[in-house]
Amino acid sequence: MRVLAVDTSAGVAAVAIMENGRLLGEYILNHKKTHSQKLMPLIKGLMDNLELKPADIDIYAVSSGPGSFTGLRIGVTTVKALAYAANKPVMGIPTLDALAFNVSPTDSLICPIMDARNNQVYTAVYKWEKNVQVNITEYMGVHVSELVQLIKGKNSRVIFTGDAVGIHRDFLKEELGEMCEFAQESLLLQRASSVAQLATVRLSDGKTENCFDLVPFYLRKSQAEREYEKNHCISCNVE
What we know:
Layout: E1 2-7, E2 13-19, E3 22-29, H1 35-49, E4 59-65, H2 69-86, E5 90-94, H3 95-101, E6 109-115, E7 120-123, E8 126-129, E9 132-135, E10 140-143, H4 144-154, E11 158-161, H5 165-176, E12 180-182, H6 192-203, H7 223-238
Parallel strand pairs: 1-4, 4-5, 6-11, 11-12
Antiparallel strand pairs: 1-2, 2-3, 6-7, 7-10, 8-9
Helix pairs in contact: 1-2, 3-6, 4-5
């Protein structure tokens, strides 16, 4: 069973191919957010080096969100097109699940945080149970101070990962002290291999999707949509 996985949910463009749980190759590019230009060459380059064709892939997986609205659309659309052309199933993996999966089994809780601007983060909290990672909260878009209060209520050490660690590390250390620690720098960013590994695990539960049904998971509306609704409501009130 070969899985091709893509992650363009944030600044990183990543693609990986896994066969029966064994990583065959992974390309990660963390240089400018030019996913529309870089993603397909990354996919082609990896497949060429592994001497594979689209038909050799059994399932196409993608980090489905939350994250960058444009990035998610690029990743999801690319995977849908590849799967449709090869007549293969697809699978969307929540970005936060894949980020948390970067962290090996541990007794600590795991909390991926993605920058959502204005001191907001996309986040959730996980723990490992019998070598299975379990989500113990819902997916959230919250202010980082609200997340700190939630973590304090868990009364457990927490490992943070994700691109927002670089932004909020000092604040988290100040507020949580010895309760918090941070994943290694190489594990803070999205990895397509984690998306592929989770897709492999979930294949046993038959959780594939038709390429027409796969859509990005945005968690909240875009800034443009929020501004439109705000202005529209003001107009309505004036009228």
